[in-house]
Amino acid sequence: MKKKLYKRENYLSRIRPFYHENDLIKVITGVRRSGKSSIMQMISEEIVEGGVNPNNIIYIDLDKRGYTKIKTPDALEELIDKLSKGIKGTKYLFIDEIQNVKDFERMINAFRAEEDYSIFITGSNSYLLSGELMTHLTGRYLEFEVFPLNFYEYLDMKKFYKMPVDGNLSIELEHYIVEGGFPRTLFLPDIAAKKVYISEIVDEIFKKDIKKRVKIKNVEVFNLVRDYIINNYGATTSINNIVKDLNKNGIAIQFRTVAKYIQHLIDAKIIYECGRFDMKSRKMFQNEKKYYLADLSFAQFTNPNSKINYGPALENVAYLYAKSKNYDVSVGRIGALECDFILKDLFLNYSYVQVAYTILSSEDTENREYAPLEKIQDNFPKYVLTTDFLIQKRNGIIHANLMKFMEENRRFN
C-alpha cells in the first residue's frame, strides 16, 4: 500500500493557484532530497481530487528506472508525445529532475506555447534557472523554492506518521539541529544511519550538481573551501581571509577561485548567501556576507565530532524557518550594531529579528540583544527569539520562545 504523503502546506498553498495555468511553467527548485518529488506527487493527487481525469496526469521521473536513458530533448519530446497520445483536454505534465536532459529549454517552451499542457518541472540546482531557460522563458515561469523541513514541519511530520515527539521542545530542537530536516531521515533508525544518508546526499550533490556542470581542477582544495564555509556558517565570511588561511597552510589559491567555489556551493543549494543591509545608508555591503546551510546536518557531516555551537545553529534554524515562509532575508546593520535578520514579505512589510540562546543570563546579554532593535525607528514588528521559557517585556519588542514560535507555525507579521 502506498504511504500517505505528509502535505507541506507552506509550498502547496503558493503553487495551488497555478495548478491549471497552462501558459506558465511551474519550476520547483531546492537542494537534493528536500522533498520536491513528494510535493509534485501531492500536486498531482490534488489535481485528481479536484475532478481531473487521472489519465490526464503525465508523470516522468528522470532519475527512475525506465527514464534514465532519456538524455536529449528529442528523446524527451518523443516520450511526452507517446504518453500524451489520445488524452483529451488539458494535460498535466510533471517532469522530475529535468536538468538530466541537456538543452531541454526550447523543447519544454514549445510544449508550453501549445497551451495544451500545465507543466511542472523540478531541479536540484540554480543552473536550472540560468542561461537558456531564463532566455527562453522570461515571464513564462514561476519558481517555487523548497527547503528541507523547518522545525514546525519536523514536529508536525512526526505527529502525522505517529512517531514519538518529546514533550520537551528543547530536546526536539537538539535532535533537529543534529539530524537535520531532510524528510527521509525521520524514517531512519538511528543517528549512524542518518549520517550515512547525509554523506550520500553530499556525495550525490557533488557528482550530479557540481562535477557534471563545472570543472573542479583540484577536488581536495574545493572540499577544503566547502568545509571551511560549512563549519563557519552564520559568521561574517571574507574570501580574502579564506585565501590567507589556505596560503598559510601551504595551499596556493587565488581570490577568484575561492569565490567561484563558493558560488558552486550556492548554485548547488548547499549554502545560502545572506547579504548585509545598512539601514542608515539603505545600501547592501557587497563584501560582508554570511552563509547559512540548506540543512544543519551538513555541519555534522563535515565536522562530526564538534559540539553544537548554539549561537549560529539557532540563527540557521530561524533563517530556514523564515525562508520556508517565503520571506526575503538579510542581515541588518544599524550604525555599529547588528540585527540578526531583516525580513521582507511579498507585500513589502518588514520584520526585525534577533536570535539568541538566552537573554536571562545577565543584564548585559539582554541589552546586547535589545539594543539594535531599539535603534530602529519604524513601527514594523521587532522580535527577540530565544530558548527561554520565561518571557521578558521591553519597549514593545516581542520576546518569544523560538521553539514555541515555530511549533505554532507563526509568521513574523
Topology, element by element:
Blueprint (H helix, E strand, L loop, with lengths): L8 H7 L9 E5 L6 H14 L7 E5 L11 H12 L6 E6 L8 H9 L3 E7 L8 H6 L3 E5 L5 H10 L8 H11 L11 H21 L7 H13 L4 E2 L1 H10 L6 H13 L3 E8 L4 E11 L3 H6 L7 H15 L3 E7 L2 E8 L5 E6 L7 H13 L6 E5 L11 E4 H6 L6
Helix pairs in contact: 9-11
Notes on the protein architecture:
40% of the residues lie in helices and 19% in strands. By secondary structure, the chain is of the alpha/beta class. The protein has an 8-stranded mixed sheet with strand order 6-8-7-9-10-11-12-13. The protein has a 5-stranded parallel sheet with strand order 2-3-4-1-5, with helices on both faces. It is globular and about 70 Å long. The two termini are 42 Å apart.
Q: What is the tally of beta strands?
A: 13
Biggest pleated sheet = 8 strands, mixed
- Count of DSSP helices? 15
Structural class: alpha/beta
Q: What is the helix fraction of residues, given as a range?
A: 40-55%
Order of helices and strands: HEHEHEHEHEHHHHEHHEEHHEEEHEEH
Question: How much is the average pLDDT?
Answer: 92
Quaternary assembly: single chain
Global outline? globular
| % residues in beta strands | 15-25%
Unreliable stretches, pLDDT < 50, 5 or more residues? none
Strand order of the largest sheet: 6-8-7-9-10-11-12-13
User: Ends: how far apart?
Assistant: 42 Å
Radius of gyration: 22 Å
